TrEMBL record, chain A:
It comes from Marinobacterium zhoushanense. This is SUKH-3 immunity protein of toxin-antitoxin system.
Automatic annotation (TrEMBL), chain B:
Gene3D superfamilies: 2Fe-2S iron-sulphur cluster binding domain, sarcosine oxidase, alpha subunit, N-terminal domain, FAD/NAD(P)-binding domain, Probable tRNA modification gtpase trme, domain 1. Residues 587-868 form the GCVT N-terminal domain. The keyword Transferase applies. This is Aminomethyltransferase.
Length: 165, 989
């Protein structure tokens, strides 16, 4: 899916597969799989197309495109996430309409879990400026419809309201 | 536009764009940038509205979004505020609250009856004779209220957005601009908001002709606009203050929900009227209103004016009138002239007479001002024996101000009356809140600028975490700009305190006499300040009047609560975009393609029932809902029968699915659920009932044990997230070594139910399904169609059945495979409605339908699930120990007489219909359905004790009011011994 809003587009990262690892062996499993390991809770690192976020003291969410990197671990659970990538100059303006986080402070490499258009999402800002938005795939149609509407409506609006967001 | 002035230096109108509109069919012209009122006044239309109660002629008062007597109606919109709403080309308007036309309002006779309509008359009249009350009620409802709502409206929604800043400065006048600049210079990220389309505030109308202000104005504006740390939101108003400096800013395109670290209120002051007889006549207006008309819209407000004043600002207004070509007949000063400054001297130099120590005793005119009667004033009353009449068509009132402090109050500021300023001023401000400018008693331009800078310094220091000693009073003026009693009594009344509600001075005195002598009580009895302007022109005078009556100070009298919103906010702005998350299961596309009528179940969409394919395909209109009730009932019953007789399949992916792991997993589940879960054997499940601390049922499901330290928990569709939160919270509270994974979205689930289920499933799975290897309530892991699955033998619908939990991305393939393989057995998908009937036949409850927010397990006949004696602790146990002996109602089964179908022999009761015993409510029906298995209508009802135990017929009141007899009976209605749970086709054949 591609948005129409000027300087802004939305695509799907279909190849990313998500997993949740938890428990005392999670860290070792991630390391053994050759995945990057974030140090701080609620932080994330990416490497070679893999993104790993630390969501608890021994809980991680790993998103990998290469199935060979799948960690081997009893408490590793596949997730059914859908991942959007929002990219463009005015992405903060769009997100200001759908999420109450102050995205002006979000830096490349930052990881966040927040409600977007009423759906629990994780968000990650890539080094290339794309904002990844991950959510349960059951909301796929709702998120797609909502973002499509937002993109088309905002495309007609000049950003001339003082840029308050 | 005969009253249009020559171009003004700061006018808002664009003279190159002429707009045509109409009022009551008469065409008017205005310029782009005109408000409705300014364009009408420019065109000579002085009469703009009729008052609320007496339908008196009214016109401009403030031109500041407070003119609630100049409200208009267009095709769709009502209560359009003429003083601030921009005129638009083609706009067709009529006045609100007019019976007939503005000039010929048939309800204007009500004013003649005013002596019979004293304050609070509607509380006392019309009660007797009782039979006439409906007549009076209808009449009052017809006459009361403003505007007419068009039911033929088009729904509009304005998007909301979130905004953030270090400092939010509310008010773009001199002090606000200075505060924004000082804070921005110090590095703060500032948002400056002003309700007007242009920043400048009173600098641009009150001081527009003041040479010394010109340089300050241009410098402030230029620096503000160019400053990279300042974002200017003109045309936006802060509609309220909420906790943690959350301030909604309402703009033309919707609401920005601004979260600021600090707020500087530079909201200014609202000019207050003088109270005297006929102070509401068109032509009588606040001095600042005339200044706005001249400076913003280039409209000449009148031809011959008198200015009533009690401050220097009145003299400035008189000078502005002369500048605009208005003949100023006199200035009437409530005090002595020697208290005034340069502007008074300038006016005297122009030869304008000043009548000192005098007041307006009365305004004369029928539909507009023709003259004023001036009388000596001693500070409290007029000497009516020494009056003089001055012909004029314009009277400006400049007798004082009230702070626009609504949001200061909302933030919890302490305010007090300052006798020197004769104004309520902030005394103590909460953390993060600052005030400056005229709101804070700084009146001269120098004071305002200095006060803005002071407020900014204090705000920035606070943001930096520095200790701040507030010097809030440093730049306040030492002269009063308000009179403490601009109120003149008159034996004939019509001296209005509240223009919104037509409240006269005597009304407040009478309210006090009746005992409503507290400010909040007086407000409610008299409705002072309860109209559309919310007392912006009435509250201050109301407080002064009550203080006078009670011989108390203003502070002792107090003020009423100032609640949001500051101005009315359109519903379209409040509504915002519609974000209504909708969640689909992996099998959704199959359901839709196979005739499913979808229904909402929490956020999920689930099949309610399926219209089966016919020879010509799926029956039409399944998705649109255009299915007859009988057709709907027919297919639901067919689905029920399919499960009972052969095989049914239902998508239960919406169930909550939670993995509970770790050494303390059993301990956690023991705490969260009523029954002991740590004793479940591996490969088995147990019914799980969750209650809250007060013992109320909140959820149910099953807990299955996978391994010693690993459990699998299901929760109801709508409570899945809450169940996960409860488990997480208890894990943290108790410091347990447990890991939780919410797999609700990543796993799908279906229930294969019916006597043939085992036979079909055994063809597709590697799990041994024999009764010995996989007993009732067992849980097994294996593969199905090559995918890893968990199979659970549960019996919610009362037949042999298997819940199959599988990866979401495999679910559709597994579902299709089962459908295909089940065809020889007549497999039929069934929806939520059939499931409800099936479980009802079995007597199983649905949490949230058969229980409510007060139901405990004993009331739901689930005492068996509450091991008070054998289990040391679980959530809700102490409450349930008490509730066990205090049961007040009970869930019972009932059935309708044989042959009662609701079609020809009476109205069928519905869920939530009440049970009536001796004329009193004695319970309600929680579930009811026709059971095809039993051939009669069955249901569950929550019935008060002891009636529930008496086994006597119950009466349900249906929609028509008729009472239908229900026969109490035992549950389950079907297969009480549970033999169907272990039967397969061979055994029951």
């Amino acid at each position: 899916m591609t948005g129409l809003m000027s300087n802004l587009n939305l695509t799907c990262r279909d190849r990313l597969r998500g997993y949740l690892l938890t428990g005392p062996g999670s860290q070792a499993a991630i390391t053994a799989a050759g995945l990057p390991l974030p140090e701080a809770v609620l932080s994330a690192v990416e490497s070679d197309g893999a993104l790993v976020a630390r969501t608890g003291s021994d809980e991680y969410m790993a998103y990998i495109a290469d199935p060979q990197l799948l960690p081997t671990y009893d408490w590793c659970f596949p997730r059914a996430d859908r991942v959007f990538a929002l990219k463009g100059k005015r992405w903060i303006e769009l997100m200001a309409q759908v999420c109450q986080y102050d995205f002006r402070q979000m830096q490349p490499g930052d990881w966040l879990m927040a409600s977007v258009v009423g759906v629990n999402c994780w968000l990650y800002l890539e080094a290339n400026g794309a904002l990844l938005i991950g959510f349960d795939s059951g909301y796929d149609h709702y998120m797609s419809d909502t973002f499509s509407t937002l993109l088309s409506e905002l495309g007609d609006i000049e950003s001339n309201e003082g840029d308050a967001q | 536009m005969k009253y249009r002035l020559e171009p003004q230096s700061l006018e808002w109108i664009n003279r190159s764009e002429t707009l045509n509109f109409s009022l009551e069919g008469q065409t008017f012209s205005g310029f782009k940038g005109d408000s409705i009122s300014s364009a009408l006044l420019a065109g000579g239309q002085k009469l703009l509205g009729r008052s609320f109660k007496y339908h008196r002629p009214r016109s401009v008062l403030s031109m500041a979004n407070h003119d609630v007597n100049a409200l208009f109606q267009s095709g769709e919109a009502t209560n359009i505020r003429g003083d601030v709403t921009p005129v638009d080309d083609g706009l067709a308007l009529r006045a609100c609250n007019v019976n007939g036309t503005l000039s010929n309002d048939r309800d204007s006779y009500i004013g003649l009856l005013s002596r019979f309509l004293p304050v609070g008359f509607y509380y006392k009249a019309f009660h007797k004779p009782k039979k006439f009350f409906p007549f009076w009620e209808r009449l009052i409802r017809e006459k009361a209220g403003l505007g007419e709502i068009s039911t033929d409206w088009s729904a509009t929604r304005q998007p909301k957005k979130y905004g953030f800043c270090d400092l939010l400065v509310i008010g773009g006048g001199a002090s606000g601009m200075q505060a924004a600049l000082s804070a921005a210079d110090a590095g703060a990220d500032v948002v400056l908001v002003d309700e007007n389309p242009h920043i400048g505030g009173s600098l641009d109308y009150q001081l527009v002709n003041e040479p010394s202000a010109a340089a300050v104005r241009s410098q402030l504006k230029q620096r503000v606009v160019e400053h990279t740390n300042i974002r200017v939101l003109s045309g936006h108003y802060a509609c309220g203050w909420y906790t943690d400096h959350y301030v909604p800013l309402v703009g033309p395109k919707g609401i920005t929900k601004m979260r600021a670290a600090g707020v500087i209120m530079a909201t200014g002051v609202m000019e207050q009227p003088s109270v005297f007889r006929n102070n509401d006549l068109p032509g009588v207006m606040l001095a600042s209103a005339a200044q706005r008309l001249i400076a913003r819209y280039a409209v000449k407000p009148g031809q011959r004016a008198v200015v009533l004043c009690a401050n220097d600002e009145g003299y400035r207004a008189a000078l502005d009138l002369i500048e605009a070509g208005v003949d100023v007949a006199a200035v009437v000063d409530l005090e002595w002239l020697d208290k005034r400054g340069d502007w008074a001297a300038q006016l005297q130099e122009k030869g304008v007479p000043v009548i000192e120590q005098s007041a307006i005793y009365e305004a004369k005119g029928k539909t507009s001002l023709k003259a004023v009667v001036v009388a000596p004033f001693d500070g409290r009353s007029c000497d009516s024996g020494q009056t003089r009449t001055i012909p004029c068509d314009l009277l400006l009132m400049s007798v004082g101000w009230a702070p626009a402090a609504q949001m200061l109050y909302q933030a919890g500021s302490k305010m007090a009356y300052d006798k020197k300023a004769q104004q309520i001023l902030p005394q103590q401000l909460p953390k993060g809140i600052h005030a400056c400018g005229r709101l804070n008693g700084a009146f001269t331009l120098e004071q305002r600028l200095a006060d803005g800078e002071r407020a900014a310094k204090e705000a920035v220091a606070e943001l930096r975490g520095e200790t701040v000693e507030s010097d809030i009073g440093r730049f306040r003026d030492d002269r009063a700009h308000s009179h403490d009693w601009p109120i003149i009594s008159h034996p004939k009344g019509k001296n209005f305190v509240d223009y919104d509600e037509d409240l006269q001075l005597k009304d407040l005195f009478n309210a006090a006499k009746e005992g409503f002598d507290n400010i909040e009580l007086m407000k409610r009895f008299s409705t002072n300040g309860m109209g559309p302007s919310q007392g912006k022109h009435a509250n201050m005078n109301g407080i002064r009047v009550l203080a006078e009556i009670n011989h108390k100070s203003i502070d002792e009298t107090g003020s009423t609560t100032a609640r949001p919103m500051f101005h009315p906010v359109p519903v379209s702005a409040l509504a915002g975009r519609r974000f209504r998350p909708e969640r689909l299961t992996p099998m959704h596309s199959w359901h839709e393609a196979n005739g499913a009528k979808m229904m909402e179940a929490g956020r999920w969409l689930r099949p309610e029932y399926y219209l089966p394919r016919t020879d010509v395909g799926t029956l039409p209109n399944a998705a649109s809902g255009a299915v007859s009730a009988s057709e709907r009932q027919r297919v639901i019953l067919q689905e029920v029968q399919a499960v009972r007789s052969s095989l049914g399949i239902i998508d239960v992916s919406t169930l909550g699915k939670i993995e509970v792991m770790g050494p303390d997993a059993g301990k956690l589940l023991d705490v969260v659920y009523t029954m002991k879960m740590s004793t479940i054997k591996q490969g088995m499940t147990r019914y799980a009932l969750m209650v809250d601390d007060s013992g109320v049922i909140v959820d149910d499901g099953i807990v299955g044990r996978i391994t010693e330290d690993r459990f699998y928990v299901t929760a109801t569709t709508s409570h899945a997230d809450a169940a996960f939160r409860t488990l997480s919270m208890k894990t943290q509270e108790l410091g347990l070594d447990v890991r939780l994974v919410n797999r609700t979205g990543s796993l799908a689930a279906l229930n294969l139910a019916g006597p043939v289920s085992r036979k079909l499933l055994s063809q597709l799975t590697n799990v041994n399904l024999s009764e010995d290897a996989f007993p009732y309530l067992g849980l097994r892991e294996g593969t199905l169609c090559g995918y890893p699955v968990r199979l659970i033998r549960v019996g919610f619908v009362g037949e042999l059945g298997y819940e199959i939990h599988m990866p979401a991305d495999a679910a559709l393939e597994i579902w299709k495979t089962l459908i295909e393989a089940g065809k020889p057995y007549g497999i039929r998908p069934f929806g939520v409605e059939a499931q409800r009937v099936l479980r009802l036949e079995k007597g199983h409850i649905i949490v949230g339908q058969d229980t409510d927010g007060l139901t405990n397990p004993f009331e739901a006949n689930m005492g068996w699930a509450v091991p008070l004696a054998s289990k040391p602790w679980f959530t809700g146990k102490p409450s349930l120990a008490l509730l066990k002996e205090r049961c007040q109602r009970k869930l019972i089964g009932f059935r309708l007489p044989q042959g009662f179908t609701g079609e020809s022999n009476g109205e069928l009761p519905k869920e939530c219909h009440l049970l009536i015993e001796n004329g009193e409510i004695a319970g309600r029906i929680t579930s009811i359905a026709y059971s095809p298995t039993l051939g009669r209508v069955i249901g569950l009802a929550m019935v008060d004790l002891p009636l529930a135990d008496q086994a006597k017929p119950l009466k349900a009141r249906v929609d028509s009011g008729a009472l239908i007899t229900l026969e109490p009976c035992a549950t389950p209605f079907y297969d009480a011994d549970g033999t169907r749970q272990t039967a397969d086709l061979t055994e029951v054949a």
